[in-house]
Every structure is written in C-alpha cells, then in structure tokens.
Amino acid sequence: MEIDTLLMTPGPVHLDAEVMLAGARALTHHRTNDFAPVYTECVTLLKKFFGTTQKLYLTTSSGTGAMETAIANLFHEGETVLTVQTGVFGVRFTKICEAFRLKTVVLACEDGKGVTVEQIAAALEENPEIAGVTVTFNETSTGIRNNIEAIGNFLQDKGKIFITDGVSGIGALPFKMDEWHVDVALSASQKGFLAPPGVGMIALSEKAWNKVETVKCHGYYFDLKIYKKDQEGAIPAYPWTPAINVMFSLLEALRKIDRIGIENCFKHYEKLAGGLRAALKAMNLRLFTEENATSNVLTVFYAPEGVAPKDIVTEMRNRYGILIAGGQEQFAATLLRITTIGAIGERDVLGTVALLEMTLKKFGYLKQVGAGVSATMEYFLNFK
What we know:
By secondary structure, the chain is an alpha/beta fold. It has helices at 17-22, 36-50, 63-74, 88-99, 117-126, 148-155, 206-212, 224-231, 244-260, 262-282, 309-320, 346-362, 371-382; strands at residues 6-7, 55-60, 80-85, 103-108, 130-136, 138-139, 144-145, 161-165, 184-188, 199-204, 298-302, 322-323, 325-326, 335-339. The strands form four sheets. It has a seven-stranded mixed beta sheet, with helices on both faces. A three-stranded antiparallel beta sheet has the order 11-14-13. Helix 4 links the parallel strand 3 (80-85) and strand 4 (103-108). Helix 10 packs parallel to helix 12 (346-362).
C-alpha cells in the first residue's frame, strides 16, 4: 500500500495542510498593491522572529543563496574572512568566500564539538587582517548549536562583520540578533519557518549596511542596494519576480507561529528532542554531538556497527513511510539524523522511534523492541 512519507529530515521539514493550501491561491502580480501586503507582512513577522528592528530582505533562493548574498555584499575582493567549520555548512561558507576571491582563514572544529570564543579569539590574534567572521548557528550535518550570543558579545567591539548562518536554527531556537550583536543573520523558509523551500532571508545591522554601501556587489541578482531601493518604494516590492506562491505559504506559516507563540514552539521542540534522545540512549545508540552543543532541531547519532546508515534510511522509507536522514559527505557511512521540528508532535516521534526499533531488530542490532518507545513515553509524561 502506498502511504504518504513523513519527513523526519532536518529540512525541508514536514508541513501542515493549511500552509501547503495557502500556496494554491491564484497568482497576483508582484508589483501591485495586491502583493505588497504579503511581502511587507512577511518582512515584519520575520524581523520579530529574528529579534531585530533593522533591515531585512527576502531572496528567491534556498539558504545557500542567502549565504552567497551575505558574502557578495559585505566584502571587497581580496579581504580576509574567518570561516568557522563545525560541519558541512561551515565548509560551504568557505567555498562561497573562495568563489568570490576572498582570502579565508579556516577554523575547523573537532567533530561533534561547537566552536569556542577562545578559538575565535586566537584566530583573530594570529590574523589581524580578518574583516569578517562566519559561524553556523545550528549545523544540521552534525547537530551542533553554536553559542552565537557569547560569540557576538565577544566580537561586538572588534571591528569585524559577524555573519551567522541561521538557516536551520532561526525560527526553531531562540535567536536575538540585535541583543546578541549579530551583524548579518540569514535563514530560509523550509526549516524553522515551516514553509516550502524557495525564500531566503537576510537581516543586517547598521554596521553591516554601512559596509554594504562601500562594497561593489559581486554580482547583480543578489545586490542588496537594489533590494533596498525596491523595498522602500511607494509600493514595497521585491526587485525581481519572487516565488509568489511560496510566499503565500510562508505568510500563512509565519502567522501560525505568531498565533501559537514562538516561545511555545521552542518548548514543543525541546520536548520532542528530549524524548527522541531518551529513546536513542535506551537503545544504546551513541550520540555524535557533545552534550553542551546539542540542538533541539535534530539529533545526530551513530548507526550501529556493521549496519549501513543508508540501509536503515531506505528500509524506514520504503516499508514504513518515515524518512530520516543519513549523514552528509564525510559522515555518510557512519551517522543518522532525525529532526524534531516541523508540523510534528509526540505521535510522530513515537512512531519514528517504534519503527526505528523494528528496523534495527530486522538488521540484527536489537534483540528486543520496546525500550526506546518506553523511554520516550516516560520522558513525555514527565516533561514540564
């Protein structure tokens, strides 16, 4: 029997029907007063969730497009950027910098560990020419949540542009751009904001915008000076043709988060993540991420020795309609990843845990099933 697939992947995440149906509205023209309120309300709500009163622009792209927008607008060719690598997406920032002919100083952290302020301080001392610092807020390849607040407080008076990749973290974890002294924060629609992919977001501090004004953008499509002109026009607009129907869905999702209360969403994800981790520990599956850097967005853990992660992913999807994720790139042969954000609840986590147990018994790792489900139920019952 064919069944719908439940996305328990780090992104795109599972979405609810109301959000998806909002995207089925008839098209409106993007340079009219029919569409302008959609655009402006998305920007207004996103500023609230980013924790900023400063400039915020939308791009038609995935999160990688928002990353590229930041680098293309903030640095002169030949400037030096410190790129912190706590996983695949930290590496991606390095590659984007190199594509725009910037010099990079790479700070590669130990697997499973977040970056420390002391490590960043040492890199800056050794390389005083560094003009900017990139750090991933929530790294979905490794499950790491970096301490952006501490890093922002440290960098506040250092004269560097602090750029945070919040693609999977903003909307799903507490984030306060202005209070944490983040100069550039970026995200995308398909993860913490519970909408389909297609809209990137970039917010900039006054310090960052002053730098943008001095930089000749490395490109045209992502030139933020053009975005500013159109957004501040008589009819606020996006400079090109946007993903109109995705933005209909995004607005519905943002309104829903606002009605529920984003703090309530954070608490819900905390509960789901705790229940999942309790199950994995009960099944004697080893977590990859160090405890003090663990994220409620997802949990990353080692597959049992002798069982290929891709075989577990395939079995759960094809037999049970549950899609979890394997590891990315260098982690493909060892890691599994399960999200705890999206339009999901306790029943979805319990179902995923139960079917994972059945799969692991089939592959010979578990002798009996039930320990994981029992641990999850106990955690949920006792959660406050």
